[in-house]
C-alpha cells in the first residue's frame, strides 16, 4: 500500500466527492484519495443514510447542499475546497495505487494552471470489467477550468490540447443491480432529452434509426464486448437502448411542446366565445 504522504509535493490538491445515499461505498473512494489529497471535500445532496456520518468519521470536510444537478453540485464543491487544484471522484470509484502514485508525482509540478489531467476509468458489470474504458478529465485548476453547466454527462470545460494523461486506473464500481441500472439509465436519458429540448435541437428520424444500432456495434464489436459473454452483450444492448430512449424522449418532448403551443394559440378565441358576457 502507498504511505499517506499527501503533503509530499509542492502543490496542494483537494479531492471533491459529490454524494447521495451511498454509505456502503463512499469509504472506498475516500480511502483511495488519502495518498495524494491534502483535503477531501464531500458535498452531500440530502442523504437519508449514513453517508455524512461515514465521511465525517474519515476526516472529510462535509457540506450539505440539496441536489441542484450534477454540474452545479460539482461546482459547489470546488468552490468550497481550500486548494485550487481539484481532483474529482465519485462515491463508487476507487483510485488505483498506480494512479495515486502518478498524481502524487504530478504534484511536484502543477505550475501550468491551464492544463488539466485525464484518468483512465473502467467500469464493472455483472462481475466483469467492461470494454476499453474511457479517458475523463478529473484533475484541474479551478481558477482556469470549471465544469460546464449541463444536466448530464458533465465535463470540465477545457480544450483537448490542454489535457494530459495520468497513468493508472480509476476503478468504477458502478453496477449495483439490473433494476438499479435501468433506473439510472431512465434518469440519465430524461436529462439528456431535456437538455436537447432546452438547446433547441430538432428531433431527427435519422438519429433514431441510426444511433441505437451504431452504438451497439461500437460497444459489442469495435470495443470487443463480444469477448465478455453475457455481461458484454448486456452492456452493448443497454447502450443501444440508451440511445433509443434519448431519441424517443426527445421526440415526445418536442411533440408535447408542439401540442401545448398549438392549444395555447387556439384557446383564447375558444374561451372568449365560451365565457363572453352577453
UniProtKB/TrEMBL annotation:
Residues of the Glycosyltransferase 2-like domain: 14-130
Signal sequence extent: none
CDD domains, A to Z: Beta4Glucosyltransferase
Protein name, per record: Glycosyltransferase family 2 protein
Provenance organism: Paenibacillus radicis
Amino acid at each position: 500500500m502507498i504511505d499517506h504522504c499527501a503533503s509530499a509535493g509542492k502543490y496542494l490538491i483537494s479531492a471533491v466527492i459529490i454524494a447521495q445515499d451511498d454509505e456502503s461505498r463512499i469509504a472506498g473512494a475516500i480511502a483511495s484519495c488519502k495518498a495524494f489529497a491534502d483535503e477531501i471535500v464531500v458535498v452531500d445532496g440530502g442523504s437519508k443514510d449514513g453517508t455524512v456520518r461515514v465521511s465525517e468519521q474519515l476526516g472529510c470536510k462535509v457540506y450539505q447542499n440539496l441536489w441542484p444537478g450534477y454540474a452545479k453540485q460539482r461546482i459547489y464543491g470546488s468552490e468550497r475546497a481550500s486548494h485550487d487544484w481539484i481532483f474529482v471522484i465519485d462515491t463508487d470509484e476507487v483510485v488505483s495505487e498506480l494512479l495515486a502514485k502518478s498524481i502524487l508525482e504530478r504534484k511536484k509540478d502543477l505550475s501550468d494552471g491551464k492544463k488539466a489531467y485525464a484518468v483512465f476509468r473502467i467500469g464493472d458489470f455483472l462481475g466483469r470489467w467492461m470494454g476499453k474504458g474511457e479517458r475523463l478529465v478529473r484533475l484541474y485548476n479551478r481558477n482556469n477550468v470549471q465544469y460546464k453547466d449541463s444536466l448530464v454527462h458533465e465535463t470540465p470545460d477545457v480544450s483537448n490540447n490542454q489535457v494530459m494523461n495520468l497513468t493508472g486506473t480509476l476503478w468504477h464500481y458502478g453496477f449495483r443491480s439490473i433494476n438499479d441500472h435501468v433506473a439510472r439509465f431512465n434518469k440519465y436519458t430524461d436529462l439528456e432529452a431535456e437538455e436537447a429540448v432546452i438547446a433547441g435541437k430538432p428531433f431527427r428520424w435519422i438519429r433514431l434509426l441510426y444511433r441505437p444500432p451504431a452504438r451497439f456495434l461500437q460497444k459489442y464489436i469495435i470495443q470487443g464486448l463480444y469477448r465478455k459473454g453475457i455481461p458484454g452483450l448486456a452492456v452493448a444492448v443497454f447502450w443501444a437502448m440508451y440511445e433509443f430512449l434519448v431519441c424517443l424522449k426527445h421526440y415526445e418532448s418536442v411533440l408535447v411542446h408542439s401540442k401545448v403551443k398549438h392549444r395555447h394559440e387556439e384557446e383564447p378565441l375558444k374561451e372568449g366565445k365560451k365565457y363572453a358576457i352577453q
